[in-house]
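Re: the pair you flagged

First of the two:
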Amino acid sequence: MIADISTIIASLLILAGSAFAAVAALGILRLPDIYTRMHAASKAGSVGSAMLLIALAITADETPVVLRALAAVAFFLLTAPISAHLLAKASYSVGYRMWEGSVLDEMPPVDPTLGVAKAPPPQGPVTSVGESQ
């Protein structure tokens, strides 16, 4: 009875994980720019991989296999968003522009030769150091 329930739960997790992985692949193919594509790959791909690995952990008979699967879930959920963020920041700094339909760009302008943000222009006349009118 318990084996049947765990098999059903693992089957549902495999189906859901496969659906998330398919949505991630579709997002990579269909979304307009590198930033939205990275978002699809990191979020949906991580959730899909995690569901598949949890299904493996449920059906595995050996403790080391279960522990490796759960460690891989933690690894995916901790590293995929961070790596996507760093890749997006690096892409922005070398000049990949956002899609024209994007609503908001909160990143400061970056000088590609230096790799640092340019200082924004002052907001009004400056009379002395630290003071503005």
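Second of the two:
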Amino acid sequence: MLVGAPAQGCQPGFLFLYPDFPKDPHDCLAPLNEIDRVHAEQVLALVNELGDLHPDATYTFLDLYGANVYVMDHADELGKAKEKGFKTL
């Protein structure tokens, strides 16, 4: 199992330390999230390549970046964030 990095540009510590960095549509730090996005793409490509080279093996990639972005994009559908007073990005 390979585990990817989460959307680190959305982490409060980085948002606090780098308030002037460019923001993405989720109001997170775009440069950090771009690194995580590219990393996820490259690890997925590696997993697919390994699967082709070793068809009897099982490889799993846990895409934390993709999961983070999906939750932010679908926050209203996944829960009652607005009713509980949470800010959806």
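The chain has four helices and two strands.

-B.
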